UniProtKB/TrEMBL annotation:
<protein>
    <submittedName>
        <fullName>Putative ATPase</fullName>
    </submittedName>
</protein>
<feature type="domain" description="NadR/Ttd14 AAA">
    <location>
        <begin position="5"/>
        <end position="166"/>
    </location>
</feature>
<dbReference type="InterPro" id="IPR027417">
    <property type="entry name" value="P-loop_NTPase"/>
</dbReference>
<dbReference type="Pfam" id="PF13521">
    <property type="entry name" value="AAA_28"/>
</dbReference>
<dbReference type="InterPro" id="IPR038727">
    <property type="entry name" value="NadR/Ttd14_AAA_dom"/>
</dbReference>
Length: 177
């Protein structure tokens, strides 16, 4: 859907900050499934935490991203997703070595342009929900840059710049500026 835009890329590259800034500007946003899952798991039994069972985490992220997409179908205007289904599918593909493109990726579609936050060591930080290091984030970024085109998406790398510059960059490309 050309009004569903994904912001993906390197962990710690500023995705969540961009999503928050877009929300403040009044745009519909969907927060990252992975962070929501970690928060739920930390409050629960913790079985699907990425550092406990990465495959269970990825499968849960697929379910959540699919439900998020469905829930946004009735919302008008551009919608910005902090990661989404393709990120979860790429993670599961990396874990399991699956080579077939899942049917779900044909049904659950986003706009062709996907905004990618590049690795940015100067702003990278760990927290309770992000325990992996920058090297792991950079490897994930490279996998995502290769995986998105396999599903017909066009990754566009965001500039390493302040949030306002990044927002202008995004909004100009989606025709909302």
């Amino acid at each position: 859907m050309e009004r569903f835009f994904v912001i993906s890329g390197c962990s710690g590259g500023g995705k969540s900050s961009l999503i928050e800034a877009l929300a403040v500007r009044g745009f519909a946003v969907v927060r990252e499934p992975g962070r929501r899952i970690v928060a739920e798991e930390l409050a629960g039994d913790g079985r699907a935490l990425p550092w406990v069972d990465l495959e269970a985490f990825a499968r849960r992220a697929i379910e959540m991203a699919t439900a998020d997409h469905e829930a946004m179908l009735q919302v008008k205007g551009p919608i910005f997703f902090d990661r989404g289904l393709v990120d979860a599918l790429a993670g599961l593909d990396h874990l399991t070595g699956a080579t077939a493109i899942p049917d779900i990726s044909r049904r659950v579609r986003y706009g062709q342009t996907v905004f990618m936050t590049p690795p940015w060591p100067e702003i990278y930080v760990n927290d309770d929900e992000r325990r992996h290091g920058l090297d792991e984030g950079m490897a994930e970024y490279e996998r995502l840059m290769a995986f998105y085109p396999k599903l017909g998406y066009r990754p566009v790398v965001l500039p390493k710049a302040d949030i306002e510059t990044r927002i202008r960059f995004i909004l100009q490309r989606v025709g909302a500026y």
